[in-house]
Specification:
There is one protein chain. Helices cover about 15% and strands about 55% of the residues. The protein is mostly beta strands. It has 2 domains: about 30 residues; about 160 residues, Porin, CATH 2.40.160.20.
Length: about 200
C-alpha cells in the first residue's frame, strides 16, 4: 500500500512537471497572426507653388527577431502651379503602385531596407489658353537605404516610429525618385509600425 501511494505521488509529480513544461512552451510560441504588423506613412507638403499629399499603408510579417518583410501600397497626388516658370500653367500628377520590402535590424533602433516597387504615373499638363496634355508611364524602382526606429522589441514588440532614407538604384528614367537628369534623389519616409493580435 505504501508503494502504491508513493508511486501515485511520483506519477502526479511527473504529470504536473509535464503540464508546466507544455504551458511554458505555449507561452514562448507565437502564432502566425501574432507576427503580423501594419502601419505605414502619410505625406503632406506645401512648397514653391506645389502641393503634395500621399499615403503608403503596409502589411507585414516579422520573420525573426531581426527581420521583417511585407507589402506596401503607394498613392501620391502632386499639384504644381506656374509650371516650368509659365504663369498659371498647372501640372497634376498622380502616382499609384505598390511593392514588397524587407527590413534587417542589426540592432533594435537601426535598420537596413530594400524595397521593390512598380508605380503607375499619370500627368496632366494644363497650360493657360492651350491644349491639355496627358501622359501615362510606368516605372520600376529598387529602393535601398536604412533608417532609425524608436525601438523595435523583436517579433512581438510594441508600436514604434521609424524614419528612413532610401535611394532608387534601378536606373529607370521614369522613376518618381530621380531628378530630370536621372540622378537618384533622397526619398525620406517616416511612419509607424503596429503589431497586430499581440497577446492573443
Amino acid at each position: 500500500m505504501k508503494r502504491i501511494i508513493l508511486f501515485g505521488i511520483y506519477a502526479l509529480h511527473v504529470v504536473c512537471i509535464q503540464a508546466q513544461q507544455v504551458d511554458e512552451k505555449k507561452s514562448n510560441e507565437t502564432t502566425f497572426q501574432q507576427n503580423l504588423f501594419t502601419g505605414g506613412s502619410v505625406s503632406l507638403a506645401f512648397y514653391n507653388n506645389t502641393f503634395m499629399m500621399g499615403g503608403s499603408p503596409v502589411l507585414g510579417y516579422s520573420l525573426t527577431n531581426w527581420l521583417d518583410a511585407g507589402v506596401v501600397v503607394n498613392y501620391t497626388y502632386t499639384s504644381y502651379r506656374d509650371y516650368n516658370g509659365r504663369l498659371n500653367d498647372k501640372l497634376r500628377q498622380t502616382m499609384i503602385g505598390g511593392g514588397a520590402f524587407a527590413r534587417l535590424y542589426p540592432v533594435r533602433f537601426l535598420f537596413a531596407q530594400a524595397q521593390l516597387e512598380q508605380n503607375s504615373i499619370r500627368q496632366k499638363y494644363i497650360p493657360v489658353g492651350g491644349v491639355v496634355e496627358k501622359i501615362s508611364v510606368t516605372a520600376s524602382s529598387t529602393l535601398i537605404g536604412g533608417g532609425y526606429t524608436s525601438g523595435r522589441q523583436g517579433r512581438r514588440g510594441n508600436p514604434f516610429f521609424y524614419l528612413a532614407v532610401l535611394f532608387d538604384v534601378s536606373g529607370d528614367i521614369n522613376s518618381p525618385y530621380t531628378d530630370s537628369y536621372g540622378r537618384a534623389i533622397p526619398n525620406v519616409r517616416g511612419g509607424l509600425q503596429i503589431p497586430l493580435f499581440q497577446g492573443r
